[in-house]
Amino acid sequence: MKPILTLIVAGVLTAGNVWAQEQPKTHVFKLEDCLNYAYEHQNALLNAKLDEEIAKSKVKETIGIGLPQIEGSANFQHFIDIPTTYIPDFISPAVYGVLEKEGVKDGSGSAITMPNDLSQTFPAKFGTKNTFTASLTISQLLFDGTYLMGLKAAGVYKELSTKNVKRTQIDTRIEVSKAYYNVIVYNAYQNTLASTIERLTETLKQTDALNKSGMAEKIDVDRLQVLLNNAETQKKNIDRLSEFNTNLLKFQMGMPITETLIVDQKLEDMALDAVLPDLAEVKVENRIEYSLLETQKRLLEYDLKRYKLAYVPSVGAFASFGQTGQNDAFYETFKKFFPTNIVGVNFTIPIWSSGQRQQRINQAKFNLRKTENDLVNLKNTLALDLRTNAITFQNNKDQVENQKKNMDLASEVVRVSKIKYNQGVGSSLEVTTAESDLRTAQNNYYTAIYDAILSYIELQKAMGNFN
Description:
Layout: H1 2-21, E1 26-29, H2 31-41, H3 43-65, E2 69-78, E3 84-88, H4 92-102, E4 121-125, E5 130-143, H5 145-212, H6 218-253, E6 260-263, H7 288-308, E7 314-327, E8 338-348, H8 356-422, H9 428-462
Parallel strand pairs: 1-6
Antiparallel strand pairs: 2-5, 3-4, 5-7, 7-8
Helix pairs in contact: 2-5, 3-5, 5-6, 5-7, 5-9, 6-9, 7-8, 8-9
Keywords: Cell outer membrane, Membrane, Signal, Transmembrane, Transmembrane beta strand, Transport
Subcellular location: Cell outer membrane
Signal peptide: 1-20
């Protein structure tokens, strides 16, 4: 029994350790904590950074085109049958020429003379059964206009990828901020509903006691019960939506959904009195979208220059060092080698491409003009976006102030109606109506707050303050 008990205890302890290790992490974050976490874990941002690294590698690859290139090769061939070639009969004319000159006669005593037709050929085999060749080739680009433009374009391409990381970071900040403030607003609404339920529960108890003593009607109790039921149902819905909003925030941050996130900020800690800036001082050219398109335009300019330089000759140098071994016997092939060493310069001169080069230039020009048109339109679009968001923010800010006044007035109406009802000079309908109006005012207030926060974030983006 003792070994068995030891195994059981060890198993329980191991399971406890595993369970402790698998417990989800708990994070208590403010907005900046959420943003910093997102900058390190958000998938889109991580991929954008990888694209930046790819761009850096692409630049190095482009630089490498203009650096020395070294290649080695080795080739072994065994001819099962050595190729046969027909060659002209160059022996017979020489032989007949000697015979004629020496006056040699044939068997019949006649002088030997050269035949009129000696155009015959005969088969011959050249080479050995085995051939082994090893070579080392070195090449160096000396001048190529398209390569020089490619180098400049590669640097701009790297810059474009860096700006794309910045744009993705801005988008991540905006989405995380929106989700973060959504959680705060819903948490505040949860607390308000909890207070409402507590107040309605107390009022219901008092009214029920009055009903039992004959000082209130049953309908008064029922009306309050309906209000309480609706408030509790709404509270459950808000609780579920609050959980959903927290999960959405975790998703925007790149945090595992299984981990626990607690937002360490309350609605009353937020400053909602931002002042509308002077739009005349805002330059939409500072927006990352405009900067990206400008960089794209520079790329197209280099592209156009590259196609124009395709008319310019290119120059390259090369050197090749090789050794060749030949023999009919396999092992003898590798005993003696014959060198083949070459150095040279090559010129590539574009002469005629049937108009292809010119059409590439035309296409590059048209693409560049399109981008220039897009820049003008984007500037106008961003200016419109700035003014639209400024108006929306101001309207939402005014709406928050208005809904706050309405909520305060509704709270005062509830307080007065309860006093009047308790003193017997007011009706239960007046109390329930006041409670219902207060709930509506609370809904409108929190909706207005969230809309104001979202419009403020969009305004900051439109002003380029997130760059």
